[in-house]
């Protein structure tokens, strides 16, 4: 296992699993426990009495004993967190899985401090996956922020299946680009695809880099680059193209709108907060168009029902998603 910094806030974590992991596909995810696996909640300490939390921060039970439960006395990520699979390898030692995460809280800070030999609680692979098109030849992989990991895993599958692909990488600034920029090939400032991103270039795929502040690549949003690329295509080429996307919801919503405008197929890997990852907690709902068993209707008369990102998704066909705004 290794844990390496990619940029200012992102890390690539490689996890070695002693046994073979069930087959996985691009778009699927794992649930990681973002705390020491043996930090078990000692609920017995709480039985039979009430707790009062004094001003000095030392909590005692009804008998006057200091409570040492880790979830009560220090910051702790109680629930597992979902992370898209960014890569996978199988060998005689078992399976390794790559995840890429951004430090945003106590749980991902714990992940960032992991070192070789540390243990991690993992469940997966979970969810459904991207479908490789049978009748398309060109693919556009649009990943913003921490939406990039499934694009890397998908690129490997596309290269193996001999598809053509262009990667689209977007971030707020150069410091937040969770990719390896090639030493000999800078991203094109006009938004043309070049062999500038190591994760795509090693597979023979060019990429376009955009930053909101213009510190690397095209000055603008990733959707600006996608719109320009789709405009450059002839109708026959667009007919042979499919877009895959993952990232912030406003970005994906714009990607879907651009694909609809240009009559291009699109698959979306949604990013939803979830507690269990297995359909139990019902917290990761997504509104999906459904004419057979609808829960409700939109203001313009489209029937929809809730689906779960963890089990029905996280990958959905773009036209079926009813966006929140």
Q: Tell me what portion of residues adopts beta-strand conformation.
A: 25-35%
Structural class: alpha/beta
Within the largest sheet, what's the order of strands?
11-10-9-8-12-13-17
Specify the biggest β-sheet: 7 strands, mixed
- Total DSSP helices: 7
Helix content: 10-25%
CATH superfamily annotation of the domain at 2-36 and 76-126: Translation factors
| H-E order | EEEHEEEHEEHEHEEHHEHEEEEE
Radius of gyration: 22 Å
Q: Would you tell me which CATH topology of the domain at 2-36 and 76-126 applies?
A: Elongation Factor Tu (Ef-tu), domain 3
Give a count of the beta strands, DSSP E runs of length 2 or more: 17
Uncertain runs are 39-43
| Outline | globular
CATH architecture designation of the domain at 2-36 and 76-126: Beta Barrel
Distance between the termini: 41 Å
Nearest-integer average pLDDT:
87
Written description of the protein model:
This protein is α/β, with parallel strands linked by helices. Helices cover 17% and strands 28% of the residues. It contains 7 helices and 17 strands. The chain has helices at 70-73, 106-112, 149-160, 198-201, 222-232, 235-239, 249-261; strands spanning 2-5, 10-17, 29-33, 81-84, 87-91, 94-102, 121-126, 138-144, 164-171, 207-211, 218-219, 241-246, 265-269, 285-289, 296-297, 303-308, 315-317. The strands form 4 sheets. Strands 11-10-9-8-12-13-17 form a 7-stranded mixed β-sheet, sandwiched between helices. A 4-stranded antiparallel β-sheet has the order 1-2-6-5. The protein starts with a strand and ends in an 8-residue tail after the last strand.
């Amino acid at each position: 296992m290794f844990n390496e910094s990619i940029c200012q806030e992102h890390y690539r974590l490689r996890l070695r699993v002693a046994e073979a992991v069930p087959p996985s596909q691009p778009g699927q995810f794992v649930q990681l426990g973002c705390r020491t696996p043996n930090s078990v909640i000692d609920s017995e300490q709480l039985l039979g009495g009430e707790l009062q939390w004094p001003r000095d921060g030392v909590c005692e039970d009804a008998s006057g004993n200091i409570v040492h439960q880790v979830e009560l006395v220090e910051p702790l990520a109680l629930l597992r967190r979902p992370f898209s699979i960014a890569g996978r390898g199988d060998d005689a030692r078992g399976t390794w899985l790559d995840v890429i995460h951004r430090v945003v809280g106590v749980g991902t800070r714990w992940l960032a401090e992991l070192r070789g030999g540390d243990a991690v609680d993992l469940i997966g692979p979970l969810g459904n996956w991207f479908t490789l098109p049978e009748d398309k030849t060109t693919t556009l992989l649009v990943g913003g922020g921490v939406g990039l990991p499934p694009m890397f895993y998908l690129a490997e599958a596309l290269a193996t299946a001999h598809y053509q692909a262009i990667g689209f990488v977007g971030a707020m600034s150069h410091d937040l680009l969770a990719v390896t920029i090639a030493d000999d090939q800078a991203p094109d400032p006009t938004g043309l695809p070049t062999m500038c991103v190591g994760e795509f270039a090693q597979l023979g795929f060019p990429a376009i880099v955009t930053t909101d502040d213009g510190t690397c690549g095209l000055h603008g949003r990733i959707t600006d680059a996608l719109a320009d690329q789709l405009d450059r295509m002839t109708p026959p080429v667009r007919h042979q193209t499919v877009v895959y996307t993952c990232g912030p919801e406003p970005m994906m919503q714009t990607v879907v709108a651009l694909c609809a405008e240009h009559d291009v197929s699109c698959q979306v890997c949604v990013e939803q907060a979830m507690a269990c990852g297995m359909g139990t907690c019902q917290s990761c709902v997504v509104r999906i168009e459904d004419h057979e068993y609808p829960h409700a209707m939109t203001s313009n008369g489209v029937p929809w029902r809730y689906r779960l990102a963890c089990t029905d998704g996280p990958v959905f066909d773009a036209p079926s998603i009813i966006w929140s705004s």
